[in-house]
Amino acid sequence: MKDYEKRFVRYLSENSLKLTRTRRLILDAVFKTHDHVDVDTLYNMIKADHSDVSLATIYRTMPLLVEAGLIKQSLRYQSKDHYEHVFGHRNHIHLLCENCGKIIEISGRHLEEFLKNETQKHSFEFIDYTLNVTGLCHKCRKALNRKIKR
Amino acid sequence: MKDYEKRFVRYLSENSLKLTRTRRLILDAVFKTHDHVDVDTLYNMIKADHSDVSLATIYRTMPLLVEAGLIKQSLRYQSKDHYEHVFGHRNHIHLLCENCGKIIEISGRHLEEFLKNETQKHSFEFIDYTLNVTGLCHKCRKALNRKIKR
DNA sequence: TACATTTTGAGAATGATTCTCAATATTTTC
DNA sequence: GAAAATATTGAGAATCATTCTCAAAATGTA
Fold first, then answer.
1. Which of B95, B27, B81, B106 is nearest to A126 (CA)?
2. What is residue B13's predicted lDDT score, i.e. its pLDDT?
């Protein structure tokens, strides 16, 4: 059993919830993805092999995975909520290219120190952060520069 | 004429758009608020004096204000998009209390330097950032501590 | 003032998310 | 291991924020 499964099983039993086939399928799909997932994408992934899983159940399961500390809701994108892994991942910074929509992840180690410090000054107890930086990725910046010069 | 009005008028004329009574009402409502506003709140503010303004028009106007550099979409909260002033405001960090929902704003001056530096390392051109920190505000932390001790 | 162009209000349409409920699966009890 | 107790599920309906449609009204321009 994978570590994330153990964690989920523990969370479920601690809360008198049941480990079902469907929940297991959803968990696996979530951890099969790398970057960010939205519910609809998960639904399509799962539907391929298991056409009987309902969209509603996926919506219902996401908060459980969040509560279990496995994923978090990190980003709203194309009018949909997106989730990303928390379990086994350091928190990080998202760079969102305004031109092509690409998402780049960079380390947030220094940031976290900075924030703990900064929030303490305001008697605020730091739990987590979400930082999205908008701008232009390398490729798009070059492409746009070329356009302007013409 | 207020500075933000000037900016809006300029934006409109640069884009062959018209300055209408309704747009002016919306602009004023937006700048009458301090913290963050969602469209529904604006709608209710405006409706009090001008019952003929339509919700749809407010939705249509928000992107114009964003484009004009007056506001930005900063936060999703209670399933609604929230906007905040950009014009005349330094960018800042949001501290969101997970218990009471209060939003505290703290300065992001140092952060901005840090991010410009950090993104440059990845050949990414920094434009803007949104940083939301979740945690517990002073009051809630104390209240919760008390509960635990009991 | 009249024309060309934008904008508007109202309500319909859309799309993500949540809810309802009867049928089904899981765990627990004996 | 079967039955009882409880939790979960799929399907579709309901909700709610946001967007679209379109005929009527407002605006800027000539």
1. B95
2. 95
Q: Please report the number of interchain residue pairs, chain A to chain B, with beta-carbon separation below 8 angstroms.
A: 99
Return the sign of the alpha-carbon dihedral for residues A138, A142, A144, A145. positive
B113 at A interface, C-beta within 8 A: no
Residue pLDDT, tens place only, B90-138: 899 999 998 888 889 999 999 999 999 999 999 999 999 999 999 999 9
pLDDT at A32: 95
- At residue A150, does pLDDT exceed 70? no
Chain C nucleotides with an atom closer than 7 Å to a protein C-beta: 5-12, 15-20, 25-27
More confident residue, A34 or A111: A111
Q: Are residues A115 and A45 in the same domain?
A: no
- Which residues lie below 8 Å from residue B53, measured CB to CB, with a gap of 6+? B22, B25, B26, B43, B46, B47
B112 and B84 share a domain? Answer: no
Q: How near does any CA of chain B get to the CA of A10, in Å?
A: 23
The number of distinct structural domains making up chain B is: 2
* Residue type for position A150: R
Is strand D less than 7 A from the beta carbon of B35? no
Residues of B in contact with A95 (CB under 8 A): 119, 122, 124
